[in-house]
Description:
Elements: H1 2-17, H2 22-34, H3 45-64, H4 69-77, E1 82-88, H5 93-106, E2 112-118, H6 123-127, E3 139-144, E4 149-154, H7 159-172, H8 177-190, H9 193-200
Parallel strand pairs: 1-2
Antiparallel strand pairs: 1-3, 3-4
Amino acid sequence: METTTIAIDKLIEQGIADSYTYQEYRELVSTLLSQNKSTGHEQSEALTNYSMLNDRRMNRLDKTLKMDESIKEVVVNATAKVTWLVLTEGWCGDAAQSLPVINKLATLNDGISLRIVSRDDHDELMNNFLTNGGKAIPKLIAYDTQNKRVINSWGPRPSVATKMVNDYKKQHGSLDPQFKQDLQVWYNKDKGKNIAEDLSKIV
């Protein structure tokens, strides 16, 4: 058991060493888009189009997101010294909705360091944080850098959206384009509230 823990810590430390700040990540995505590329090892026109849509979505959220005062208070008063390491890719629709909220919360407390890494470049790390056996992103790892231990993890979706997905899968077997559209509508109406609530519980 101890060996596994050490291995995970080493993978996380490698991830942190190889990571981007939020601003650097946004710039990386923009640079790749100017070359008609997405982040990640797989390249296709569809993935580039998703990335472009997500980039616009994140620009809008960065400007318009507002945090509830009660959530702000929790995050501001948290005493943890923690790194939030997020595994993601530019083409991921859930990540486009979550990352601006994660960033906004991290900026409220100097004790939270937000770092972002490519899932495809950190396959072994991703394999330690699977969701129902899949490499679903975004995946946030809350890591105590001082004591070198994982405190918590979150993702790939906020709790309400996760329930929506699970309920739909139970009824229909898989997610279809209509559901994915409905999920984006839910994200737009929710305005990051559910993500912020979830994350305030793991600060």
